[in-house]
Amino acid sequence: MLPSRAYFSKAKRHAFMRIKRSRTAFFMTLILSILMLLLRLLDSELEAAQA
């Protein structure tokens, strides 16, 4: 017995949602890493100013 068309559309939608979620997580990680880099740069700038 072959799976119905509704099953295929449901699986496709589920995969799309998973891709969307992973892309959002990727962007969040990217933004967080950029923020951490900026904080590190600011920290080194402050240390250089204090020296």
Please tag this protein with its features.
single chain; 51 residues; mainly alpha; 90% helix
Structure explained in plain terms:
The chain is mainly α. It has one domain. 90% of the residues lie in helices and 0% in strands. The protein contains 1 helix and no strands. The longest helix is centred in the middle third of the chain and has 46 residues. The chain starts with a helix and ends with a helix. The model has no long low-confidence stretch (mean pLDDT 87).
> Which spans of ≥5 residues are poorly predicted at pLDDT below 50?
none
- Shape category: rod-shaped
Order of helices and strands: H
Q: Give the helix/strand class.
A: mainly alpha
Roughly how many Å is the radius of gyration?
Answer: 22 Å
Overall structural domain count: 1
- Total count of strands: 0
Percent of residues in β-strands: under 5%
The tally of helices reads: 1
Question: Mind describing the biggest β-sheet?
Answer: none
User: Mean of the pLDDT scores?
Assistant: 87
